[in-house]
Design a protein that fits this description.
The chain is built from 19 helices and five strands. It is mainly alpha-helical.
Length: about 450
């Protein structure tokens, strides 16, 4: 039941307003789904996924994690049985936060018997960690929603996030919930006027995946030059220390780890359609060869990155100059449009980026339009991957069949138009003047 005070404050019963019940249902639903569809690996005669194993076994993954990248992380972690470590003995396409987490989990369960029996425990533990991290995302979204829009909207946004399937799926497919956590943590710090916390969150994000440093863009727009310089020095300085540590372990592998993302061919974007690259962004070279980190797997770009950078950098500068909102909501809007412009510029599209994008959309559009956009974009993304990439690729050529290629182009084009439309809507909202207190003045 609910108390009279709670009804007066929010008009909702305590069953819906309770953080404990929300988190309990959020976590237990995911844990029960994981228990019901256990991940495991089996050897097969037909080639499936290459786990980077020296014995050359062909592996097929089953269970709730079968569409994601857990098997890939596991294959790299298994190299520690041979005394091999990332950045020292092979390159790793991500900064140190996740590789450290993955190796820590694997070290707890490794039996060193060169079998795949430990994958079940590894995948379960990694999924549990991602579930807990995503529960923190839920609470941060509720906290930000309450601050920006009031307690009722904050509660509604948290329930909407809990029910959107994308956040459920990707805790079993990759570590994007960890990236989303760093972005929301940093954003919470900046919105609340705690720039040190915001800078630390951005640095943690950059040490997980580089792009959360994007949060420095709204800092430069919304803060004084002195505040922006101080925040940037902290965030970039911590990131630089982590990257220098990667290079110090082994210069060749450390530099390869930092540069590999900049040497990837286009994938799953309109740029990939133009370039003729019909593949996902998963890398499949020899991680123990430093030169492989610089090898282009696919066709080179028809539209070079620097030309795209001029175009989208100009769009970003236009938004920067013409932004009127300087309040808390303006900070969130500017962060979101910066992220969307970055996604449109990028040569690749990773479906898991939606895990980071959706909370930002809900904060900017806390209404039916925001929910509808998230759900529609999620359906378009799932129709492309895993559905179309699983059943529309000709296995003999590795390309889409003549029947499915137009559908793939249509899905990519639709997603691009949706993101462009979202950017325009965010820009419109940034152009609205508001008398609210600037975010830089929040205690």
């Amino acid at each position: 039941m609910y108390s009279k005070g709670e009804m007066v404050q929010t008009g909702l019963p305590s069953l819906l307003t309770s953080r404990m019940i929300l988190v309990f249902l959020f976590v237990t639903f995911r844990v029960m789904a994981l228990f019901a569809h256990q991940p495991y690996l089996t050897t097969t005669e037909a080639a499936s996924y290459d786990l980077l194993e020296p014995d050359g076994s062909n592996i097929r993954e089953q269970g709730l994690t079968s569409t994601g990248d857990f098997w890939y992380y596991y294959g790299l972690a298994r190299w520690s049985d041979q005394g091999l470590l990332p950045y020292r003995d092979y390159w790793y396409e991500f900064p140190p936060v996740f590789p450290t987490l993955s190796l820590t989990i694997y070290s707890l369960i490794s039996d060193r018997d060169q079998s795949y029996s430990s994958y079940n425990v590894y995948a379960n533990l990694l999924a549990m960690v991602m579930i807990l991290v995503d529960a923190l995302n839920l609470l941060l979204l509720r906290r930000l929603g309450t601050r920006l829009h009031g307690p009722m909207t904050g509660i509604a946004l948290s329930w909407m996030y809990a029910l959107i399937p994308i956040s459920f799926l990707h805790v079993f497919w990759n570590f994007e919930p960890l990236v989303a956590f760093t972005v929301l943590l940093s954003l919470t710090g900046f919105v609340e006027g705690r720039d040190m916390r915001g800078a630390l969150g951005a640095a943690l994000g950059a040490c997980t995946k580089l792009f959360p440093l994007i949060l420095l863009a709204p800092v430069w727009r919304m803060r004084t030059p002195a505040q922006a310089i101080r925040t940037s020095v902290i965030a970039v300085g911590i990131t630089a220390v982590a990257f220098i540590g990667m290079i110090a372990l082994n210069r060749e592998f450390g530099m390869g780890s930092l540069m590999v993302q900049f040497n990837k061919a286009s994938y799953q974007t309109i740029w990939a359609v133009i370039d003729g690259n019909q593949a996902t962004g998963l890398l499949d070279p020899d991680h123990r060869d430093p030169a492989a980190a610089y090898q282009l797997q696919g066709n080179p770009s028809v539209v070079p990155w620097w030309l795209r950078g001029i175009v989208f950098g100009g769009i970003g500068l236009w938004v920067y100059v013409r932004t009127r909102r300087r309040d808390e909501m303006g900070f969130v809007l500017f962060t979101t449009i910066t992220v969307v412009i970055f996604f449109l510029w990028s040569q690749g599209w990773s479906p898991q980026w939606q895990v980071t994008l959706f909370p930002l959309i809900l904060l900017c559009m806390p209404n039916g339009r925001g929910v509808l956009f998230c759900v529609t974009l999620g359906i378009v993304g799932l129709a492309e991957f895993p559905l179309l990439f699983s059943y529309g690729i000709d296995r003999s050529t590795g390309m889409f069949s003549p029947q499915t290629f137009p559908l793939w182009v249509a899905l990519v084009s639709l997603r691009t138009l949706m993101l462009a439309g979202l950017a325009f809507e965010l820009y419109r909202r940034l152009r609205v003047s508001t008398p609210r207190k600037p975010v830089s003045e929040v205690a």
